[in-house]
Amino acid sequence: MKGKPLVSIVSAGLSKFGKLDGLYAREIFAEAAKEAFERCPKLDPKKDIRALFVGHMGESYEHQGHTGATAADWAGLLNVPATRTEAACASSGAALRAAIYAVLSGLCDVVMVGGVEKMTHRTTAEVTEYLAMASDYPFEQWHGITFPGLFALMATAHMHKYGTTEKQLAAVAVKNHYHGSLNPKAHVQKEITLENALSSRVIAWPLKLYDCSLITDGASCLILTKPELARKYTDMPIHIVGSGQASDTIGMYERRDYTSLTAAKKAAKMAYEMAGTKPEDVDVAEVHDCFTIAEIIAYEDLGFCKAGEGGNSVDNGETKLGGRIPVNTSGGLKSKGHPVGATGTAQAYEMYLQLTGQAEKRQVKNAKVGLTHNVGGSGATAAVHIYRSE
Amino acid sequence: MSEQTSFTIEQFYKHILQGKLLAAKCQRCGKLHLPPRPLCDNCFSKEFKWVELSNKGKLLTYTVIHVAPTQFQGMAPYAVGIIELEDGVRIPGMIRGVAPEQVKVGMSLVMDFGTCAATPQWPQWPRYYFKPL
User: Fold this and answer.
1) pTM for this structure?
2) Same domain, A75 and A223
3) d(CA A345, CA B101)
4) Candidates A89, A212, A290, A305; catalytic one
5) ipTM value of the model?
């Protein structure tokens, strides 16, 4: 089945990303669902959709768990089997993998998969505490290591081993803010300078405020079906041709190397092999830039460059729009925003736009092969998917 | 050390409270587990023995936390890092007794139990820390 479509994406939806005051997670999810339904008039949601998978990380935000049924209810999909997946910031990347299982099993012809998180009504201290739950409690949180702190440990290790600089980290933020300035749904649609980034306050040295992704509200969703049924619903399907997911130690300290994420490498290998593609075939990618160092490590783990050369890739403009392989054309988690449960399928939404030629000002010319890379916690989960246009 | 004690995180911290750094050694494959665990992830054995580790090691990587969780805010900015102990196992911890800007990758550190005290509420674990050797 090498290179053959596993499933097809026949529609996709994304809410506005940002500070959505007065809205509840379920209401934001309904906004994303509405766009997906409107894009696909041949789909009868109540009749056709046979299951819903929703990524959602934290019930602490709204004192609300049981997100599968809640999202199904508000999306007008009452009575479908609805399941929440939780894999920290990779919750909807994992939901996507689960949705693929559902279609490939033969049990469901059409499924909806998405994710949601409502975060901005909480204080930064509260959000920091909730996000930290994605890391090990007894040895990491207990000794005062924050979530940015874990990625700061990776940044220090990368700088020490390869000579990566704080300026190169800042350059990732500058690039992604430029891309985000072209995305009308991005949380922050504003360009920044290297000086802005380098002079922002320290959060966890060497990471500064502009090295960190945003606290954002948002939702995303996709409609998947069997490849042979795709044309029944749309003239413009895209296909998922590779899917990989892997896990790693929950305690980052137990790993042998802090400059790379083993789970991401394993997920990428699985996805590339299934798709019959190589890193150099990828035309456009969305990677998990929860912190700037994570994007640099992603280039290396995905084979876009050699280990240690991620900093140079961003310096040389290789990953900017117009470059060799544009990365995070949506603005990424850094500028589009990071409503954690929504991120995995929001990355897939960008692939849907890019591979169907609907990405407007940020369109990558002749994009045919896309890749998404979604990471949970400090890398205890990673999901990689590869997409191909018709 | 009693062979009846269970190989749990709870027990690891009870040892720390007594000023002892102990890991669980798998009796079948020899893997050293820090933290201890009830099932060896390498060979699936459930037979372990407590072994005392050297409390000295080298700093592999670190960060200086400026924006801290609520209970640590009074200490910020503070350095935390991952230390490879002489026995080869790795453990995170706060680094004290040195200014954060003087902390360097590769420096020699030693675990200190001096101010160890259990917290009043769950999980009632003490906090060890590291200081320059």
Assistant:
1) 0.97
2) yes
3) 40
4) A89
5) 0.96
